[in-house]
Amino acid sequence: MNKHVVLLPGDGIGKEVMESARLVLEAVAERNGHHFTFEEKLIGGAAIDEMGDPLPRETVEAAEKADAVLLGAVGGPSWDHLPGSGRPEQGLLGIRKQLGLFANLRPVKGFRQLLHASPLKKEVVEGSDLLIVRELTGGLYFGEPQERSEDGEGVVDTLSYSRKEIERIVEQGFESARKRRKQLTSVDKANVLESSRMWREIVEEKRADYPDVKVDHMLVDAAAMKLVTDPTYFDVVVTENMFGDILSDEASVLTGSLGLLPSASLREDGTGLYEPVHGSAPDIAGEDKANPLAMILSAAMMLKHSFHMEKEAEHVEKAVQEVLDAGYHTADLSVVNGTELGCTDLTRKVIEQITSED
Ligand code: ATP
Ligand code: MG
Q1: Which of 17, 258, 277 to probe ligand 1 with, by most ligand atoms within 8 A of CB?
Q2: Helix (H, G, I), strand (E, B) or coil at 35
Q3: What is the pLDDT of residue 347?
Q4: Residue 256 — very low, low, confident or very high, per pLDDT cuts 50/70/90?
Q5: What letters, b where the CB count within 10 A reaches 16 and e where it falls short, cover 161-182?
Q6: CATH of 119-254, one of 3.40.50.2020, 3.90.78.10, 3.10.290.10, 3.40.718.10
Q7: What is an example of a GO molecular function annotated in this UniProt entry (predicted)?
Q8: Is the distance from the beta carbon of residue 291 to the nearest atom of ligand 1 less than 6 Å?
Q9: ipTM
Q10: Fewer beta carbons below 10 Å: N end or C end of the chain?
Q11: Which residue has the higher pLDDT, 358 or 149?
Q12: Strand 103-109 and strand 262-266: pairing?
C-alpha cells in the first residue's frame, strides 16, 4: 500500500522520538512491501522561530492532504514569555481543531516489567489493559456562553452537545470495543446532568446495533474510584470531553511511565493525528535520553486505525514488548532491571525485532 504521512516533530524530544518513529515505519514498510512517503512540517516553537506562527498555513494544508499525521510534542521554556495566543501549544490546539478530530483514543496497558513502577499496588494494576475513548469537540471546553458577568460577581461555562456529536463518539466506543474484549463502559453523570441523560439514551439506542458488545453505565465519580481500585474491570471506556480528560490522566498512573503511552485522535473519514501522551521534556532534550516507545506505539496506532494494517501494528507492539522483555530501556525506566540505552540505540533494538520477527 502507498501512504503519505505528514510528520510534525515539534520541539524538544519531539524531534528525537519522531526520528525513531520514522525509522520504525520504514522498517515496517520494507518488511511488508508497503511504500510510505514522509513530509516534515513545522509546528509549535520550531514554527514560531522560523515563521513567526505556531501553526503555519502550509502545515495545516499538508496535514489535511495526508493519509495520517504524526506529531511529536510542542513547547518549552524558550517560548514561555510569549502571550497565550502566540504560544507553541496553540499550534497543537489549532491543528486538532482544523483537522476536525472528534475522538481521542488512549490505550493504557500495564507492561509487566513496569508493574512496580506504578504507585499503585502490583496486584491491582497487574493485567490492566484498557482504552479510553474521549469526545474532543464538545462539552464544557467549547460551549457558549463562557464568560464573567459584567459586575465580576458571577461566571458561566456551558456544557453543550448535539445529538450527532454524541452519536458519533458512542459509535466509536462500540467499534473500539468490538475490536477488543467487547465490553463498553459508558461514563457519565446522569444523576445530575441533562447532557448525561441524553448520552445514556443514545448509548441505549446504539447498543441494538452491537449485540456482541456488553454495555454498562457508570457515574464518573464511581469510575474514577474504580480506575485505581479495580482497573482490570475495564475494557473500553467512552465518555465526554472533560470526564475523558481527567480519567485518561488518572489512568496513566497505572503504567508508571509517561514514556510508554501513545494516543490517537481520529477524524470521521478515518484519518487521524497520532502523538505520544508526554510533552517535549525540555529537561532531557537533545541528550539522546528520550524514551521513543510512546511515539513508536503511536505510529502503531496509525497503522491500525488509519491504514487498517492490523498485522503490521501488532508486529510493532510485539517488538516493543520483546525489547522490554529483554531488559532494554531508556533512563526514565531505571526501575527496570536490565540494560539502559539511549533513544537511538533503543530504537535500533525495536527495528531489529521487527526485521527478525517471523
Ligand atoms: P506538557 O505540558 O507538554 O504536557 P509536561 O510538563 O507535562 O509537558 P513532559 O514534557 O511530558 O511534561 O515531561 C514530564 C517529565 O517526564 C519530565 O521530567 C520529562 O523529562 C519526563 N518525560 C516525558 N516524556 C519522556 C520520554 N519520552 N522519555 C523520557 N522522559 C520523559
Ligand atoms: Mg503535561
Answers
A1: 258
A2: strand
A3: 98
A4: confident
A5: beeebbebbbbbbbebbeeeee
A6: 3.40.718.10
A7: NAD binding
A8: yes
A9: 0.93
A10: C
A11: 149
A12: antiparallel
- Residue 186 phi/psi, 5-degree rounding, is -95, 125
The length of the chain, given as a count of residues: 358
pLDDT, tens digit, 9 for 90 and up, residues 6-54 = 999 999 999 999 999 999 999 999 999 999 999 999 999 999 999 999 9
The CB of 21 under 6 Å from ligand 1? The reply is no
Q: What is the average pLDDT value for the chain, to the nearest integer?
A: 95
225-235 confidence digits (pLDDT tens): 999 999 999 99
Which CATH code is given to the segment(s) 1-104+262-358? 3.40.718.10
Does ligand 1 lie within 6 Å of residue 298's CB atom? no
> Ligand 1 centre from 164 Cα, in Å?
35
Residue 195: strand, helix, or coil: helix
Rg (CA), the chain: 20
